[in-house]
Amino acid sequence: MSLRTHVVAWLVLLAAGVLSLVWAYTFGGGANPGLLDRAGPAVAWGLPTAKVVFNLASAGTIGALVLAVFALPRRGTPYERALLCAGWSAVAWTGAAAAHTYASFLLLANLAPTTGFGAEFLNYLTRVDAGRAGALSTLIAAAVAVSCFHLRNPRILALTIFAAFAGLLPLVMKSHAAGGTDHADSTTALFVHAAAAAVWLGGLLTLVVLRPVLRAGQLAVTVRRYSTLALIGFIALVVSGFLGALSRISSVEALLSPYGVIVLAKAGVFVILGLFGVLHRRWSLGRIEKHPERGGRHFAALAVVELAVMGAASGLAAALARTQPPPPAGSGKTSAADFAAGLPEPGLWEYLSRWTPDPLWSLACGFAVFVYLAGVRRLQTGGRPWPAYRTVAWLAGVAVLFLVTNGGVHVYQGYLFNAHVLTQMMLTAVVPLLLVPAAPLTLAKLAVRSRTDGSTGVKEFLERSVNPVLAAMRRDPILSIFLLAASLLVTYYTPLLEWAAVGQIGYSTMTVLTLVTGSLAIAALTGEPDPGTSSSSRLFVLAGIGGVYAFGGWKLMEQAGAMEMPWYTSVGQPWGPSPAAAPETGGIIMWSVAALSLAVTAAMVIYRRGRSPRNHVPGQADSAARRPAYEHNELTTPTA
User: Fold this and answer.
1) 128-167: b or e for each residue (b if 16 or more CB lie within 10 Å)?
2) Which residues make Cβ contacts (< 8 Å) with residue 332, sequence separation at least 6?
3) Which residue has the higher pLDDT, 577 or 71?
4) Which of 152, 361, 384, 502 is deepest in the core (most CB within 10 A)?
5) Burial (CB count within 10 angstroms: exposed 0-12, middle 13-18, buried 19+), residue 94
6) pTM of the full structure
7) For residue 577, with 0-12 CB atoms within 10 Å meaning exposed, 13-18 middle and 19 or more buried, which class applies?
8) DSSP for residue 385
9) How far apart are CA 471 and CA 532, in angstroms?
């Protein structure tokens, strides 16, 4: 039964994907051969067809892995079956990636498929960016397949999921749709779009396959957990799709072009999928809980129809990747240098008033606000208080993070080295000062329900991964010095500096690195002291961190010219020798922000020392013990 269901689901996906591809690829003009075309129709149609299979197989892999880890108890038939589905999907993914790479070579070299594998193809794989991307994607898919079949260690499985998501990146970065007309290209939007679609589509496909082996009560729980993933995926798809399309379609004429019409068709498909989601949450879940057997069959039938619509969306996406986008409207600016020349000289007003949406960080900030407020509401509904100042701190921290990653600082970060330093310091030393006092991990511990079936929910993930790291840093706060020093070293003295200057993927990597390391350091220094440490030792650590920033700022001023090269090569010096654009001011920015941050952190450490139970007089001990759970951990995110 399960094998037949698996085959039927895959056939429905492929049939819908190919049919929508045929229409969109023909309508968009991608199938029209050029005057000197020698590759032939086999290559012209084989390339997008391989991309459809690539999309569906990668989704089958990622969705099955995420569902196995998040929604299913470890061990047991459903868990093993999910990993088996992921493994076979990864095998198909490997084949599709290899076929897509070879078809791309034939199209680029204008050769017929009968050419075979010669020295030219090997040169393409090793020396041409598109060939290297295809080869890397194929190798990652093959490694994921091996891991799914043979490895069951939870940590290895987590690395496998990370590798599966990373396997989407090579082709995303080489897609022509990833290139924007300025620094704020749509690479991140495409990656978020592909990753969200993979979790949504692949998770539903896996649920259809697993339904016969899920017990009656387990089916309802698993579908409900998947429903949460699907809702997140739908929101991410809509936001990233809208922002990605916005970077390409800026006029009515562009919207009515073949590219724009396919985008509209894809938007219509998403509306239909949204209605399916509402139907599942309002109707299917209730029927499964009341009548598990009959409700499960109804869910499977509805899910197969939904998979057909998802397959159509995947076919449209593959055709869209091979359709020529409309030319940019307006002045015809096409390079980063042109855009930089059109910006005014940077200043405080420009940093506060300019705007360039980043899909990843817009979504991250939106989800951060929603999840935190939902947790607070759950506590209050259960009669448990939560300090208002923490909620205010969280909202303020997310607001600053949003301004840094979507506002004028982000606009100029693509053109100025000193704006890049400002970005790094805001993320490392300012945003954590607002986020950490909000105690999000304490909120999660109090508001999130524990899993009892052996699966890994949010609470279990935090307890196994984040809390041990924070506990180690609280025991030995001096680790914060080495952590921040390593963060500065990686940010400014590795290829990440250039990647962050010229592309969104590098920028997002730098953002995550600096935000995480800064938050860990602040949490370790301002949280409940470990019995073996003292506030004096934490102040000593703060002095060490000040030394790191002092040395780092001095080196930035000394080496500013060399460090500015990625920006200079990309956009030149659009504002000339302006003091506001001088790279040497990066060191001054680091010193200024660090001084402010360290002063506030020192005040927090001293405040914590005054409220520590070890400093209470005997008559106050009982009242301290009677404080609510959250009050024992006022300023940090470790467990309460």
Assistant:
1) bebbbbbbbbbebbbbbbebbeeeeeeeebbebbeebbeb
2) none
3) 71
4) 361
5) buried
6) 0.84
7) exposed
8) -
9) 12
